[in-house]
Every structure is written in structure tokens, then in C-alpha cells.
Amino acid sequence: MNALTHTPATAPQIAQLVAQQRDFFRRNGTQTLDFRLAQLRKLRQLIVEHEAELIAAIHADFGKSKYETQLTEILPLLGEINLALKKLKKWIKPTKVKTNILNFPAKSYLVPEPLGVALVIGAWNFPYNLSLIPTVGSMAAGNTTIIKPSELPAATSRIMARLINDNFEPHYLRVVEGGIPETTALLQQRYDKIFFTGSPKVGKIVNQAAAPHLTNVTLELGGKNPAIFTKDCSLPVAVKRMIWGKFLNAGQLCITTDYALVHRDIKAEFLRLAVAEIEKSNFSPENHNLVQIINERNFDRVVGLIDPEKVHYGGRYSRAERLIYPTILTDVSTEDAIMQEEIFGPLLPVLEFDTLDEAFALIQGFEKPLSAYLFSNDAHSKERFLREVPFGNGGINEAVMQNSNPDLPFGGVGNSGMGSYHGEYSFKCFSHYKAVMEKTPVIETNLKYYGYTEQKIKLFKKLM
């Protein structure tokens, strides 16, 4: 039962696991409400009972504090489980929709059904959140699920494998650990759903692997997320909110501000407030608010984006500790290296603009971002932002916190992803809604049957 828990999985083992899960699903093993609720309660109990171990593992991987792990990992995960436990009975019921007069008398409804065998590939930056929250949606929807956590945070991967593989049957829920070979072997199998969180580059590989099987895919990717600060914005609170979101998890956050677009007239004050906010936060491991970069390769990549001549504040780092301190860069252009890729680190390039036309044109020069933020008190600016700036999710006078509302779907668009999840949207993400029309056998008309006449067509036109 634990063959895949502590040793790398071979391709034959993975193929056998997928076959076992498909067989269990086909025997309707996951379909009942009671079964789904029991499995979700078990997962919740494991998280609560082993919270200290989960926190210790993530601290071992990249020094995240107990408080930040609770805030960004444990509490959101428990919140998703509790919401599913509370709402699942409602979610699984057929939903009535209107029936047009052409089909009177009849009733129409949507029936959610699980897709089947799901593969969830998580990301390293929030290893519990991004592996297990999608899994909660899959479990609630009634699928069997294989979880492939990122191998980069090795301690968190191990504890997820141990807790899940020792407490759930492999034909229902299983963690497969490993790196590229294991992921490649997993993607060679046929699934009914693949949920991937990561980079656009790897997202394309996942999509290509799913294509031969026409597998339903959700991709949660990333991009160059802008934060726009207009001349009329409430600058002190705007900067405070943006800075917190920017340097959370050392900037290793797919929805954080990747660059700030600041109106020329308020740039000096923006920079003053941003520096003051950083210094007030006093980022350090001792203050439980400075997280390590995940590994040396990513550390070197982020440090390589720092142009010493453009550092306005910060620029300090320690390779031995894998720490990069909050850094602001100014006089940045779209041609600079830092604007050529998603930063995924605690660097904030600041660009200036004179008009919204100029700001929006700059944003539209990049691929569609996962998130975008506008700080403004002008109604027209807000309307233009919503109409002209493409993004997956975002905020007006707020940053990052849209991710904490389970009634908002979370997802990207274009290069930043496809599909969405969180709350009921997670259930929908892992479900198919069968469209059904049910009609009485008692009443029948001859209108639709052969023997068409001009009079019948005229009546059709009216009814349709």
C-alpha cells in the first residue's frame, strides 16, 4: 500500500495506480454524499492534528514562519474544506433552469457529475495551498485523485505523501513524489481532469500531454502583474496594501505586483512611502516576515535581475542564507531584464506614466497577466481599467486579497492560464454539468414533426 510513499514511482506503478483509480471510480465508489463528506472530514482532521509538523516542514524548506504558513497555507485550506462540508449537499443537487415556450410543458435542469480520475500537479511556492485546495475540489466533486506536489520543497512533499498515503486508499487518493521523470510518467497516462499550477512554459507541456486524450485541463499560471497608481489615489493606504502583498512570501506569489506603474506627479511621494513602509515592516527572519528563496537556482535568477545602477532602495542579499531583502528599482524601462520575465522575488520595479492611455498601452504590450491592480478614486479610471486591461483576477484599491474570497473564481486568461477554482468554483472545475430536459409523455403536438408548412415555420419563428 505504501510503495509510492517513500520511493520514486516507476512508470508501470503509475500506470497501475491510474488503472486502480479508474476502476474504483467506475464502480461508483466516490459518488455518494456520505462518502465525499467522510473523506473531506478525514483530510481536515489530518491537517488539524498534524499542523505543527506541516508548519515545521515548510520552515525547513524555505524558512517560512509559523504565522505566515497559517495565514497563507493552513487557514485557506481549512476554509475550503469547511465550505465544501457546509455546501456540498446543495452543490450536488440538480439546478433548475428555464424552459422556453417551444418545449412547453417540460422542465430543464443541470446535473453535476464527477469527471473521473484527476491529476493535480501543485507548485512549490505555496505547497499545501496549491496542491491540496484543488484536491478538495476534486474530492468534493466525487473524483479519484492523484497529487503530484513539487519536488523543490522536499520536506513538504514528504509530509503530504506520508499523511495522505498512510490514511487514504490508493485507489481513491494518492500522492506521487518525484521530479521530472515521475511527472513525465504521470502525464503519459490518460486522465479525465488535469489541474496544473506553475509556469506558462510547463503549462504548455501539460496541455500538449492532455491533448491526445482530449482531457479537460485547468492551468493556473502567471505573468507580469501591474499595479497602477493614478494621481488621485489615496496614496498612503494604496502603498501600504501593495507593499504587504508584494513582499509576502518574499515575492514568490503568482498574484503579487510584478511592477508598479506610478503617475509622474506622485512618483517621488510613492517612493518615499514605499521605503517607509518597508522599513516599518523591518523585514528579517527574526521578525517572521522574510522568507528564503526556494533554491540557489531561483536565487541566482532573481539576483541577476537587479541592476545596481537602478536600485533606489535595498539591493541586499545573502546567497548562503538564500535571502533577498526587499528592493525597489527606479528609472526602469520595458527593455530591462527585470521586465522580460515574471520576477517571482522581492524586487519592485517602478515605472512612471503621464496618461492612462500610456499606462494601458504598456500593460497591453505584455501577455495577459494573471492579476492586475488599480489604485484610484476616479470612477472613469476604474471603468476604463475594467474595460481595457485584460487580466484573470485583480483588485481596485486592494492587492492580492481577492484570492481570499471563495465567492470569487481564481484563475488566469490566455498566457496566464485557463479555468478557475476556489469555493464552489472548485467543485465546478472538477465536475461536468449534464444538461437535461424532461418532458411529460401525456401532452404532444405535431409542430416539430415532418409535414412542414409555411404556417408551421411562421409559428416556429414566434416560439423561438
Describe the structure.
The chain folds into two domains: 11-221 and 415-435, Aldehyde Dehydrogenase, Chain A, domain 1; 226-407, Aldehyde Dehydrogenase, Chain A, domain 2 (3-Layer(aba) Sandwich). It is built from 15 helices and 18 strands. The protein has helices spanning 11-26, 33-49, 51-62, 66-91, 127-141, 154-165, 180-187, 200-210, 235-247, 267-281, 296-303, 356-364, 379-388, 424-429, 454-463; strands at residues 95-97, 106-114, 117-121, 144-148, 173-175, 193-197, 216-220, 226-229, 259-263, 311-313, 317-318, 323-324, 327-329, 347-353, 371-375, 393-396, 417-418, 431-439. The strands form four sheets. A seven-stranded mixed β-sheet has the order 10-13-14-9-8-15-16. α6 (154-165) links the parallel β4 and β5 (173-175).
Helix and strand topology:
Layout: H1 11-26, H2 33-49, H3 51-62, H4 66-91, E1 95-97, E2 106-114, E3 117-121, H5 127-141, E4 144-148, H6 154-165, E5 173-175, H7 180-187, E6 193-197, H8 200-210, E7 216-220, E8 226-229, H9 235-247, E9 259-263, H10 267-281, H11 296-303, E10 311-313, E11 317-318, E12 323-324, E13 327-329, E14 347-353, H12 356-364, E15 371-375, H13 379-388, E16 393-396, E17 417-418, H14 424-429, E18 431-439, H15 454-463
Parallel strand pairs: 3-4, 3-6, 4-5, 6-7, 8-9, 8-15, 9-14, 13-14, 15-16
Antiparallel strand pairs: 1-2, 2-18, 7-17, 10-13, 11-12
Please outline what is shown here.
The N and C termini lie far apart (58 Å). The protein is α/β, with parallel strands linked by helices.
